[in-house]
Amino acid sequence: MATTKKSPPPADDPALVAAFEARIAAGESIEPKDWMPERYRKQLTRMMAQHAHSEIVGMLPEGNWITRAPSLRRKLSLIAKVQDEAGHGLYIYCGTETLGVERDELVAQLHDGTAKYSSIFNYPTLSWADMGVIGWFVDGAAIVNQTVLAKASYGPYARAMVRICKEENFHKRQGYEICATLAKGTPSQRAMLQDAIDRFWWPSLMMFGPSDKDSPNSAELLKWRVKRKTNDELRQRFVNLTVPQAQAIGVTLPDPDLTYNPETKNWDFGEIDWDEFWQVVGGNGPCNKERLAARNAAHDEGAWVREAALAHAAKQRRGTEAA
Amino acid sequence: MAARAKGAPKRAAATDGAAAEAAWPLWEVFTQGDQGKPFEHAGSLHATDAEHAMQNARDVYARRGEAVNLWVVPSSAIIASAPGDAGPFFDPGNDKAYRHPQFYKVPQGVRVF
Questions:
Q1: Which B positions 32-91 lie with beta carbon below 8 A of chain A?
Q2: Nearest 5 degrees, angle CA A7-CA A219-CA A146?
Q3: Fewest CB atoms less than 10 Å from the CB: which of A4, A224, A294, B7?
Q4: pTM passes above 0.80
């Protein structure tokens, strides 16, 4: 057990900060043992931990439908996708650990509600069509985000993103395939799909975070190339990519203001309900409590597995020593 | 590589479950993408022993045929060079142009392999 108390972080040496920022400006990659400003370490830890938590909590809404997938093919895909999300969580937790924080500490913060995760996972998954729309919108939005994060200045984070992006492509395509299939289905299947789109469109746009003018962390993260594009830029890119995909399968995105702007070559969209966003971030979304309760239950109920694994390892060691 | 930052806080675990998890050592995973290719660092993971680490490494880092072989190494066994000393440490290799073929002149028009 650690007995030393955490001393307040020493003020960063301006010369070291200048050298660090010069490296960032030159496009160099920062590695775990390199010197970095305390604030960079802190911001990265917060951002990476939130990202890892999102992968883990993201398993819950989809896990909800594994037993009810409409065919074996769909069930296999969904299981593989949910397993991938667990893997993604692990890649990013490992990356976060290189910043000097222990995984169990991060997990404890998730479980006691002090850490944040993506607000999208606090919405319920009410129908099978939600599995399609989550893959299409939520994983699609994640790809837009993560493709840029793959060029982030922190090496372990960037490398985890490269790996994750490759896998998310399968997630998005399997989701879009579900949507395209339902779109060609019976009237009630089409209605189910449209209902899922209507529920998930706006929360998906909120995934990119607050508007640039209300995003206090953005400037610093951009300066240090933890982020390479602003929330609003990424959101616009997602809208531009998604509109033609919606048109291709003949579904409607629930925004009467959605219009193509020939000057900017962007799809202009309506005002996001930021009150709803802050409500959900603040813990008052439809499923916040349910998600945390499920995570805590899974962790507690798995305690005996972790203990058994340790006991088994100890027994094996004793066996080796005795031989 | 999951080399810890200096002065990383080691905190006491919050709950019993977390205590068990905290006791799982960290391992570095290296994957060989194909026969004859070099092993590359893929990432790290927590596991109770080598066998457990190997199984977790397969499930976490080789779900899509990314590896034909795996190495798992206790992270504590890795000795890494210090970035702060990179200049003087690698200097002996940096100023010896004569170790490169481009250093040597070849008569014009001659193709040297």
A1: 43-46, 48-49, 51-52, 59-60, 63-64, 80, 82-84
A2: 95
A3: A4
A4: yes
